[in-house]
Design a protein that fits this description.
Length: 143
């Protein structure tokens, strides 16, 4: 009841109302928790249907293996503390990207539009979007 994660279905109208998700998160983790705070502060109720399971086969593939995708786990500068706060500066209205590829897929007869995007990093706002050569985040977490 205090966090949100995994697969989430949300109406476009609500996503726009809360300004989408923060763009301060790079790598893996915590972006969904910050999004949950946005929803709660907008008095949006999150419903969790019962008796729906994905099982362990024929489901979404988790590719956050720290051995194969080291960037997902890398934290630099003071990223952990700064991203533990509600972000009121970035979101859907500020995201900058380039569409790298587009595909149309059929899933169970439904047409799905797949977009592969490259996010543009604003290093003044989020210097941790490129940790190459940057100091590791070693600050203790704020309470």
């Amino acid at each position: 009841e205090t966090f949100l994660g995994g697969v989430l279905l949300i109406p476009r109208k609500i996503f726009k109302h809360v300004d989408g998700m923060s763009t301060k998160y790079w790598g893996w983790g915590l972006e969904d928790d910050e999004f949950f705070v946005r929803l709660r502060q907008a008095n949006i109720r999150v419903e969790r249907p019962e008796r729906i399971g994905s099982g362990k086969s024929n489901t979404f593939k988790d590719i956050h293996d720290s051995r194969k995708r080291k960037r997902d786990q890398t934290k630099c500068y003071n990223q952990r503390n700064l991203t533990r706060r509600r972000d009121r500066d970035t979101g859907l209205s500020t995201v900058d990207y380039v569409i790298a590829a587009q595909r149309v897929l059929q899933i169970d007869g439904a047409e799905v539009h797949y977009l592969d995007v490259d996010l543009i990093c604003d290093t003044n706002l989020t210097p941790w979007c490129n940790c190459t050569g940057a100091p590791r985040d070693t600050e203790p977490l704020d309470k």
